[in-house]
Structure formats: C-alpha cells, structure tokens
Amino acid sequence: MASECLFCQIRSGKIPAAIVVEDEHTLAFLDHRPLFPGHCLLIPKEHIETLADLPPPAIPALFGTAQVLAKAMEMGLGSEGSFVAINNRISQSVPHLHVHVVPRRKKDGLKGFFWPRGKYKDEEEMEVVRKVLEDAVRRLRA
Length: 142
Description:
This protein is an alpha+beta fold.
C-alpha cells in the first residue's frame, strides 16, 4: 500500500511537491488545491493511515511540526492565525495521515466548520454521550 500511496511517493521524491519543511519524522508541502496560499499538508514519513494509527511516540514530532508551521504562517505570511485539521477516513482523499495547516485572516471567508452543526436534544442526551466517551477513554487508557 505504501508504495502506491500518493504521499509516500511525494516523500520518496517520485512525485514532485513544493516542500516547506522536512525532518527525520515529518514532511510538509503545499497543498496543490489550497484553501488559501500557504495551505500545507503535513505528513508523518512513515505510512500511517489515520490519527488513531499514529504510535504515541510519533505524536510530539508530528504536532511539534504542526506548531512550527502555524507560527511560520504568522511570521512569514503575516497571517492572523491558522486552521489545523485532520480527516480520518471520511473526507480523507489520500489514505495517509495528514494535517492541514492553513493560514487564516479575519474575514477571509472561511466559516468555522464545514458541516452543519446541531444541538443535543437536552442535557440528559449530552450526559449519556459524555459518559459513553469517558468510559471508552478509560478503557483505551487501561
């Protein structure tokens, strides 16, 4: 799978990309269809499909680079902030974990989340969902 993965081919140099930063564990390049100029895709060099698959020791390298990119967008591009996002399976056009780091400016036209937001039916429904997630986290950490 990794040999056919578009991002693995970029990592290996088989497919050209506008590389912004590269280190031992991560690679960031400009998205060819950016939301705004400077929109980067940050990947772990190892072929990993989703955030859930990322080994815990790899988390600091990936998110450390995401933090540096966000700061670089403010420093270099004069952005007022950034949007950082990950899709897992749904809307993940390439099945290789990638973090979108996008420069933002006030009134840039990007409106919060890209999907309709709703409300819980009531406090009871919210509490049921909270407890289910709390229990799942407890089991994962055990």
